[in-house]
Amino acid sequence: MITIINDAPENVAAFNAAGDITKEDFENLVIPYVKSKVEQFDELNYLLYLDTDLSNFTMGAWLQDALLGLKNLSKWNRCAIVTDKEGVQNFTDIFSVLMPGEFKSFPKENLYNALYWCENGNEVES
Fold first, then answer.
1. Among 5, 7, 8, 114, whose CB has the most other CB atoms within 10 angstroms?
2. Pairing relation of β-strands 13-18 and 44-51?
3. How distant, in Å, are the alpha carbons of 7, 84, 93, 120 from that of 90?
4. Cα-atom radius of gyration of the chain, to the nearest Å?
5. Exposed, middle or buried, 12 (CB in 10 Å: 0-12/13-18/19+)?
6. Which Gene3D superfamilies match (predicted)?
7. The pTM is what?
8. Cα 59–chain centre separation
9. 112-124: buried (b, 16+ CB within 10 Å) or exposed (e) per residue?
10. What would the pLDDT profile of 71-114 be if each residue is shown by its tens digit?
11. In this structure, are residues 115 and 123 in contact, taking their beta carbons and an 8 Å threshold?
């Protein structure tokens, strides 16, 4: 299931993915919410907190995620993937070279920093 992270900055479409993730999660929640943010801010600042294994994403969910990326390709500004899965972190860092905008991975303990980065483009100073 995907839920909106309600205390995210206004210009960030932030989601928590937990348990099984389906195509309907993207169709009914993610895509409409992202669309409203792009219409409001003319760019996409996106955060996904992965609180589930990638194996819990159905094939339909992966297709919806890919379509979301392609549909808003020119609107990507910043995208943070928050996970402790090293493979996902590495993929995000490699993917950032191929996509417009900035893509960055953060460990789960740095959720606040990831939200701040999505909102402002810089990290909280230690």
1. 114
2. parallel
3. 27, 11, 5, 23
4. 13
5. buried
6. SpoIIaa-like domains
7. 0.81
8. 18
9. ebbbbbbbeeeee
10. 665 688 998 889 887 655 555 555 555 566 788 889 999 999 99
11. no
